[in-house]
Amino acid sequence: MPSPFPGMDPYLEGYLWPDVHNALANKIRQVLAPRLRPRYMVRIEIYVVEDSAPESEIGIMYPDVQVMLSGPSRPPTLGLPSSVATLAGGTPATLTIPVLDPIEVRVPTVEIRDVASNQLVTCIEILSPVNKREPGLAVYRQKRQRLYHAGVHLLEIDVLRRGTRPLAHPRVPESAYLIALTRAQSGTTAIWPLGLRDSLPEIPIPLRAPDGDSLLELGPALAAIYDEAGYDLSIDYQEPPPPPALSADDTAWVRTLHE
Description:
Layout: H1 17-36, E1 40-51, H2 63-69, H3 82-88, E2 103-114, E3 120-126, H4 136-149, E4 153-158, E5 177-182, E6 189-194, E7 202-205, E8 214-217, H5 218-229, H6 248-257
Parallel strand pairs: 3-4
Antiparallel strand pairs: 1-2, 2-3, 4-5, 5-6, 7-8
Helix pairs in contact: 1-5
C-alpha cells in the first residue's frame, strides 16, 4: 500500500525515522551507482554522533526511552544509606527528573567518489534531528564549510519538520521541508522549499568537469522504500503525525486523504 502523501510522509518522522534514513541512503546509492559507473563509485559512509541532549526526541524518535522512564522510580539518595538520607532532612524537592545518558546515533551519508583518485566529489546528506539542534547543529555547519572549501558538491535533503535548519539565510522561505544543492566553488545554493502537498523533485547530482549532472528522482526512491519496508503496517493514519503539530489548513487537508 503506497503512502497517501504525494511527497514526504510526515508520519515517517517519528520512531520510524532511523530506518527511513538508512533505507533512503541505500536506495539513493542503488539508483545512482549503475548510472555513474565506471568513472565514479557510490559509497555509504556511516558516522556516529553522540546525541547529548536527547530530551526533545523522547517519545518521538526514541520511544523506548520514554517507556523506560515511565516505570516506577524513586528520588536518588546520592549513594547514601537510607537512614543517612532520611536524617539529612531539608525541604523536599517539588520535582525529580531522570538523568539521561547520551545516545549514539548512526548517521549514513552517501558519497560519490572519483574512481581514478578516490577523491570525494559529491556528498549527499540526509539530515537527522541531531543535525538540527545544538550541539550537533554547530558541528554539522562546520562540516558544510569544510566540504565547500574542499571543493566538494553538497546536496542536503531535509525532510524533517522539527529542528533548526543548518542553512540560515533571510531569503530562504518557511516550508515544511527543504532540499539544498551547493555546487563546489559556485558561491550559490539552489533551494527547493517543499510543503506537505508537494511532490519530491528530481534533483541534479553534479559531478566532476567535464562530466554533466546525473539525476536523482527522490520521489520514486522514497516510494520504493515505503513499499519495501511496509511502513503502512506500522502507521495509524487516524492519529496525528509526530510533532511539530500541523497547521489548521494542513490538518484539514490530511483528513481528506483518508476519506
